[in-house]
From TrEMBL:
The keyword Transcription applies. The keyword Cell cycle does not apply. PANTHER family: BNAC03G29690D PROTEIN (PTHR34269:SF2), TRANSCRIPTION FACTOR B3-DOMAIN FAMILY-RELATED (PTHR34269). It comes from the Eukaryota. This is TF-B3 domain-containing protein. Keywords: DNA-binding, Nucleus, Transcription, Transcription regulation. It comes from Brassica rapa subsp. trilocularis. It is found in: Nucleus. InterPro entries: B3_domain, DNA-bd_pseudobarrel_sf.
Length: 187
């Protein structure tokens, strides 16, 4: 369920120390039913918000926990079952419901953060894997480095274009973003 005016969805805060960044592995995309998170990440960032009884049952007796996971981009919530997997990892079962309609690739990074008002784990895609942008049809060909360098040049050009405008430059622009000295189009 998406947020309301009173309790909007908690947006991603890049400054938060509680964000969990996961780089997807081959086993976590496609037809996968699970995504794996380490015990350390969950203890520091998620388990502190869950009832102690549930967390103790999960860690000591491998009793599963149900947890809502909210896709911030599509506004779809899915319920996952968390189970212990070995000594240091936990698997989120139900990940295949998230993967439907997504086009995640190996190496993509997603970020998870806790939404305290909705008592759920929010997530969104944080970074695309650069490798899959150029390698889809030209893998192993001589053209691959050319395409990758072109993509890098394009990314740098976009970065330059988005650099913040200085306050002095803003003061010299009119309300339409044109130089203030060029007012020939005004009556």
């Amino acid at each position: 369920m998406a947020g309301t005016d009173l309790y909007p969805d908690a947006p991603f805060d890049p400054k938060s120390e509680r964000n969990i960044f996961i780089t997807l592995k081959e086993s976590e995309i496609g037809l996968s039913n699970t995504i794996t998170m380490s015990k350390e990440l969950l203890e520091a960032n998620i388990f502190i918000y869950l009832p102690r009884k549930d967390v103790t049952g999960l860690i000591q007796n491998n009793e599963p926990i149900l947890l809502d996971v909210f896709d911030y981009d599509t506004k779809i919530t899915t319920t996952h079952i968390i189970r212990k997997d070995g000594d240091n990892d936990f698997k989120f079962h139900g990940w295949n419901m998230v993967l439907q309609g997504k086009h995640f690739r190996t190496g993509d990074t997603i970020v998870f953060w806790w939404d305290i008002f909705h008592i759920r784990l929010n997530f969104k895609q944080f970074m695309f894997s650069f490798n899959h942008l150029a390698a889809t049809d030209i893998r192993g060909s001589a053209a691959r480095p050319v395409v990758e360098s072109a993509l890098t040049a394009e990314a740098l050009a976009v970065s330059e274009a988005l650099k913040p405008v200085s306050m002095a430059a803003i003061g010299s622009l009119d309300r339409n973003g044109r130089p203030a000295s060029d007012r020939s189009y005004f009556p």
